[in-house]
Amino acid sequence: MAAYDLEEQEQLSQIKAWWEQYGNLVSGVTLAVALIAAGYQGWHWNQRKQAAEASALYTSVQQAAQAHNGQQAREAAGELISKYSGTVYADLGVLLAAKVQVDAGDAKNARTQLAWAAEKASDPALRDLAKLRLAAVLLDDKAYDEALVQLAKPGEGLEARFADLKGDVLVAQGKTAEAKAAYKQALELTDKTDRQDAKALHDLAQAKLDSLGGAN
Asked: What is the pLDDT of residue 64?
């Protein structure tokens, strides 16, 4: 029995010595792990909270669009930009709000919103779509050079639409030869895709090209 007591005492002494040497390190590592875990949980909770709030604001934009309420759509989109600019809800909300402004004839606010989306939307595809829509608004405003700037780098999957709209801008500038080249490019691009909207765009570009005297 005494032997066991001596062994236990020796083990306790070894544990005590080890703890005196490494105890602070173990405590520090344990605390650090706990803080990291708590921080991650807090970050995750905050992300969910922001997503829910951004989603609610996007719903407000949708409701405003259905009611054709340009001011409400603009204000909700503005709040999305100021508070949740890194979310897809902000991207979609601004694009939808801009459409409401266009439908209401408010080109100025539409341009402001589309310019933001064209430059700062988190999704590259939505940035490209915003550039296309902004170019269309600029065309209506007779801001031809600015429209061409937006159309300079076609977005992936939107090349034919970029070319077709570029042709429209060039026609408005009286640059018939360049416009025909743009329409021909749109035709070539639509021939290379099986997208459902390709035929309609092809027929439209062909009609525009024919109105300029055809391919020659």
From this structure: 86
Cα→Cα distances 52→20, 27, 48, 183, 194, Å: 49, 37, 6, 44, 37
pLDDT of residue 1: 47
The C-alpha atoms of residue 134 and residue 2 are separated, in whole angstroms, by: 90
* Domains contained in the chain, CATH given: 19-122 (no CATH), 148-216 (1.20.58)
Q: What is the DSSP string of 117-159?
A: HHHH-SSHHHHHHHHHHHHHHHHHTT-HHHHHHHTSSPPTT-H
The total of other beta-carbon atoms located within 10 Å of residue 96's CB is 18
pTM above 0.85, yes or no: no
Determine the Cα–Cα distance for residues 13 and 1; give it in Å rounded to an integer.
Answer: 18
CA nearest neighbour of 56 among 101, 89, 99: 89
Judge whether 212 and 180 are in contact, CB under 8 Å. Answer: yes
129-156 in b/e burial notation, b at 16+ Cβ within 10 A?
bbbbbbbbbbbeeebbebbbebbeebbe
